């Protein structure tokens, strides 16, 4: 089985649900508490590539910091990636990584299907 990693926020209910699914599926996943171990720009770019999405699609646009930094008007992807590296709370969660693929585990029903593929 491929190595599985989860970018996890223990305070997030969806992230906790994802951890339960991993447990039910008997997946021994590496848990990255990304709010404590902030990913750098290279790691964020790698995740974006695996997800096949633009930086804004990885962002939690309803977070106060998103509004405070006025990111809705930002056009530069590098600026968005930089903001996520400096403020990991902006990163959508949970992210499940399996090999060279990843998904955002919302809705959580997607996770079991992803793990089995």
Structure commentary:
This protein has helices at residues 13-24, 41-51, 64-68, 77-86, 109-116, and strands at residues 4-7, 29-32, 95-98, 101-104. The mean pLDDT is 95. By secondary structure, it is of the alpha+beta class. The chain has a 4-stranded mixed β-sheet with strand order 2-1-3-4. The chain contains 5 helices and 4 strands, in the order βαβαααββα.
What is the strand and helix layout of this fold?
Layout: E1 4-7, H1 13-24, E2 29-32, H2 41-51, H3 64-68, H4 77-86, E3 95-98, E4 101-104, H5 109-116
Parallel strand pairs: 1-2
Antiparallel strand pairs: 1-3, 3-4
Offer a concise description of the structure:
The protein has helices at 13-24, 41-51, 64-68, 77-86, 109-116, and strands at 4-7, 29-32, 95-98, 101-104.
Record keyword descriptors for this entry.
117 residues; 4 strands; four-stranded mixed beta sheet; globular; alpha+beta
Main pleated-sheet profile:
4 strands, mixed
Range of strand content = 5-15%
Give the overall shape: globular
Rg computed from alpha carbons, rounded to a whole number of angstroms: 14 Å
End-to-end separation in angstroms reads 11 Å
**Total number of β-strand segments?**
4
Run of helices and strands: EHEHHHEEH
Class from secondary-structure proportions: alpha+beta
The average pLDDT is 95
Spans of at least 5 consecutive residues with low confidence: none
Q: Strand order, biggest sheet?
A: 2-1-3-4
Q: Enumerate how many helices there are, as a single number.
A: 5
Helix content: 25-40%
